[in-house]
Design a protein that fits this description.
Number of strands: 4
Structural class: alpha/beta
Number of helices: 3
Helix content: 10-25%
Strand order of the largest sheet: 3-2-1-4
Distance between the termini: 49 Å
């Protein structure tokens, strides 16, 4: 992670056992996908909150050197714990995405 104020935006993506959704989300944050930005404008901090099948750190880094992967083994699924430790290291603006499993209700 970069020093404070050297990055305009820090994007935190937090997930647990949502490998497919995490990969899609991370790709959507690459400079290939985003328009009119470069890698110096933002960093992506990827927090795997103890998934049983974690993402490959090298794969995440392959998205760009502004992507940082943290595997956080937690006793709780609550994402606030690992994310709060990043506040001191985050850029000027912080965006926080928590990937969750969609819940569908069926009336019937």
């Amino acid at each position: 992670m970069k020093k404070p104020n050297s990055t305009k935006v820090s994007v935190v993506v937090n997930f647990f056992n949502l490998r497919r959704e995490a990969k899609r989300t991370l790709f959507s944050l690459t400079t290939i996908y985003q328009l009119h930005v470069n890698k110096n404008d933002y960093e992506v901090i990827v927090i795997d909150n103890g998934s049983t099948e974690p993402l490959d750190k090298k794969w995440v880094r392959g998205m760009g050197d502004h992507f940082h992967y943290i595997y956080f083994r937690s006793r709780t699924l609550h994402p606030a714990g690992p994310s709060t430790m990043l506040l001191a290291k985050a850029g000027t603006i912080m965006l926080w995405f928590v990937l969750t499993v969609p819940v569908f209700y069926h009336r019937g």
